[in-house]
Amino acid sequence: xxxxxxxxxxxxxxxxxxxxxxxxxxxxxxxxxxxxxxxxxxxxxxxxxxxxxxxxxxxxxxxxxxxxxxxxxxxxxxxxxxxxxxxxxxxxxxxxxxxxxxxxxxxxxxxxxxxxxxxxxxxxxxxxxxxxxxxxxxxxxxxxxxxxxxxxxxxxxxxxxxxxxxxxxxxxxxxxxxxxxxxxxxxxxxxxxxxxxxxxxxxxxxxxxxxxxxxxxxxxxxxxxxxxxxxxxxxxxxxxxxxxxxxxxxxxxxxxxxxxxxxxxxxxxxxxxxxxxxxxxxxxxxxxxxxxxxxxxxxxxxxxxxxxxxxxxxxxxxxxxxxxxxxxxxxxxxxxxxxxxxxxxxxxxxxxxxxxxxxxxxxxxxxxxxxxxxxxxxxxxxxxxxxxxxxxxxxxxxxxxxxxxxxxxxxxxxxxxxxxxxxxxxxxxxxxxxxxxxxxxxxxxxxxxxxxxxxxxxxxxxxxxxxxxxxxx
Length: 473
Description:
Cathepsin D, subunit A, domain 1, 4 domains, ten-stranded mixed sheet, 30 strands, 20% helix
């Protein structure tokens, strides 16, 4: 036995025999507490008291066509904060790692590292007391080679039917039905899930969602269509779906930000996005100040929880504004006050943003004598061509709130586009009928691009007999 330390370079070759991974190049990072392994298509399975995790690994960074399917017992689910400050809930497995002549058990978290140079990160908790890291040395231990994967067949991406949950209390409305039709037209399975009928079993290793007492299966993706009255509970249900590994089209955090109109306006303002001047106060003594902050009457008073134009009132005079504000305060209601963009003339633009692009737009025009252009208030929708500035404002607003899918409402003012509101569950009917675009199909395409397709090994035949393909399990 030697007292000499076991030296690790700043990068090393590692292997996991129990995961059928004979060679992985790892970055040794003492600044990171947790070790991480590249994994996609992560799927928990097995009994609740002994859960396991199956995942797909691409061990060679520049060869995504080579896949290894791995499985291991899960020991934990843990929130991990990456170097860029983002927090992610990850599965944690325990596996024996071999570097050089040493083999020892480590805990490693599973996360998508496809944009990273290394498929593995060896954190400081995996480095034993008798090990020393040499920051100037590369591969102090035995070097391996990706040639060890030569026996595995390459594969081509194939279309994989997805199991998609549409979280809604209105399964028969136009938007829900169109999303279901679009998903099924592309070979997927779409199921309507009533948010109010979901219950949650909150468990770190085996989170579960029950529907009318029946445990729901794992879904590949969830499309939230949560009504305003169910926002808080719906967000909790979405967080539970995310814990099971499902891709969430709009995250609960982004939905919560968009539904809180005051907070949403603060986020938009901090992002430098143009919007009507907005004021908010709690004390009834500030009524006149509120009116002055937005430039006086006419102005708009808007309940913070208003939807589809309800709870939005135009006060054309100062006295009317004071009366409306005092009435809302008497009801102990939360509201904001905004200046009225007169030149918009009861017309606004709805931009439908999917995946950072405006895919369709429509002009909504209010009925005569009405300033609210919402279609639910009788407004008329028509196709419209938007400007470069309007397109940029819509994309920037959706991005600021973290929404993958958003309906961004803006006004055409003398000062340029002003964002009125960002909707996290925008209706599809008006935009599809006025623009002629198949918005539901584009949403499903977006989901497909974010739920990685599995690859199918090619069938090889020798002398008229089928040859067994190499197993990576």
